[in-house]
Amino acid sequence: MLFKRINFSSATTPYNFQESMENEVERKQGRTFVPPGGKKMTVFLDDMSMPFVNAWGDQITLEIVRQLIDHKGFYFLSKDDRGYYRTIEGLQYLGAMNHPGGGRNDVPHRLKRQFFNMNMTLPSQRSIENIYGKILEQLFHPKRYAPEVIGMRAPLIDATIALWTTVKNRLLPTPAKFHYVFNIRELSRVFQGICAVAAKHEYEVIKKCLYIKEKIRQEQFLVGLWRHECERVFEDKLISNADKKIFHDILDKTTKERFKDSLGLEDEQLLTSYLFADFQREDKYDEYGELIETAPFVYEAVPDIESIRKRVYSKMDGYNEKFPSKKMNLVIFDDALRHLLRITRILNSPRGNCLLVGVGGSGKQSLTKLSSFICKQVFFQIALTKTYGETHLKDDIKNLYREAGPLGKQVTFIMTDSEIKSEGFLESINSMLATGEIAGLIPKDERDVFALETKTVYMKEAGTKGEDPSTLELWIYFINRVRDCLHMVLAFSPVGTKFRERARKFPSLFSSCTIDWFLPWPEEALVSVS
Question: Are 37 and 30 in contact (CB under 8 A)?
């Protein structure tokens, strides 16, 4: 069976939905269309209750969905074919939505009756332990790691679940802190961070604990890494120092409870706060100054804040040499340095997208430019003009797809508040973050061209000889490659009501991005900048 996922937001129009479906089917005879290759197709409609409810209480986007399910076809909305009826056969539908209520929409009963309704409850603690237990079992393999490290699997899972549960119950969402939602995604992000370090066992990050001045045990380093990942996932989205203090108290308490007895360490050995960076290794040059080998990005602990600051200043000099017209003279005070390390961490992870929230002038764009340069990525920002509209945005994104897909370049795409001319811009970004596809971005006839451009890379990666992959397999590979290599950075201001409205209307902007909240500059920052 084929599979197609469509993500709804409040700005999804009937026309967007029709375009998405149109791209997935081919003509059988006359005006009857079917999924390609004589197969059936499952269409997964995510966030189904999101489309906007108009003044008459209708969600017009859901009416065209209902028409397609009920009558196995729809009438055309585009100018050239308006009024023509098209039959589409061989489709089945799965829908998913949040519970209605609390400001969230319901869906019309005429659409609801087409589905069997099931309620999904959160997995039990035992299920969660099983899921992550299996993942860590694969990573901390006896062939790669010492028994002490392997013995850390159970306490790590135990501590993460305990921390997550406490934070979820203590830091509750309010109108000002509407994004304080700590669900299973947060849990998986903590483990994802630990896995990213453990998976690169060939660099022996955990074994040798390079760059850390004092001699420490491997399991002590693991606790430090775990604390750091929890801070990144939970603490970075908190909007005040008071909330951060609450989180730190919870983290310290959990660390002592879960690790102290089993490891037999003192409090100060356990309650570490390491910084991690992945650009500490040097490029190798020969005696003529030619580059022999570029340094790999290895995520490792930082010896101290001064050494990494020096490194960032040298990277900034490199940026100013390369782009003399866009010179940056930044003062890298402690707070800015920490934000920079967070941004590089996100940009260097596959499918890493981030949402930077802070008032104008707090350094979101400059730090993103520098981070992108440090991560050796292509930096892109749209050039706004009076006539710039949705078609121009789609053209720009299409070019980025070509760079990220077939060429496999890592791309940073930043978008700020001032560049969002209409809600349609966010609809495209929301769809791109959720599924990697945007309705009408790549016309049907061009899709095969894009897919075929990735064929050589696909064959090389799969290591298969002989039969050629189908264009559909190549297209799925192309989209996955784009999602891995194209990193979206959204720089928003929390001032006013717009920020809150966007969170409600475009859920993927928040669920698919790691949030980093910029607090007001501390006094030492103001002094050092002045």
Answer: no
Distances (CA, A) of 324 to 52, 86, 313, 361, 374: 47, 57, 16, 22, 16
300-301 and 91-95 as β-strands: parallel, antiparallel, unpaired? unpaired
Q: For the chain, what is the largest distance between any 2 Cα atoms, rounded to a whole number of angstroms? A: 77
Candidates 278, 285, 292; CA nearest to 211 is 278
User: Would you say residue 133 has pLDDT above 70?
Assistant: yes
| Distance, CA of 210 to CA of 203 (rounded, Å) | 10
Beta bridge partners of 73: 87
Any idea what DSSP says for residue 122? Answer: P
**Could you give the angle at which helices 364-374 and 305-322 cross, rounded to 10 degrees?**
90
Bridging pattern class, strands 26-29 and 32-34: antiparallel
Helix, strand or coil, per DSSP, at residue 95: strand
Q: Looking at per-residue confidence, does 176 or 485 come out higher?
A: 485
pLDDT range class, residue 465, cuts 50, 70, 90: low
User: How distant, in Å, are the alpha carbons of 19, 68, 447, 483, 486 from that of 25?
Assistant: 11, 13, 13, 23, 27
Is residue 33 within 8 Å of 68, Cβ to Cβ? no
Helices 184-199 and 218-230, axial angle in degrees (round to 10): 140
**Higher pLDDT pick, 103 / 11:** 11
Per-residue model confidence as pLDDT tens digits over 350-362: 899 999 999 988 8
Question: What residue has token string 């309704």?
Answer: 117
DSSP 3-state of 383? coil
Distance CA 366, CA 3 (A): 40
pLDDT at 166 over 90: yes
431-443 pLDDT, tens digit each = 999 989 888 888 8
Contact between 413 and 486 under an 8 Å Cβ cutoff? The reply is yes
d(CA 486, CA 491): 16
The Cα–Cα gap between 44 and 46 comes to 6
Alpha-carbon span 516 to 358, nearest angstrom: 9
Nearest C-alpha neighbor of 441 from the set 428, 453, 451, 424 = 428
Specify the pLDDT at position 369. 95
| Domains of the chain listed by start with CATH number | 2-112 (3.40.50.300), 126-277 (1.20.920.30), 330-529 (3.40.50.300)
Average confidence score pLDDT of the chain: 89
Question: What is the pairing mode between strands 85-88 and 73-75?
Answer: antiparallel
Reply yes or no on whether the pLDDT at 294 is more than 90.
Answer: no
Q: Which helix (H) or strand (E) holds 501?
A: helix 498-505
Q: What are the tokens at 3?
A: 């599979």
CB distance 364 to 356 below 8 Å: yes
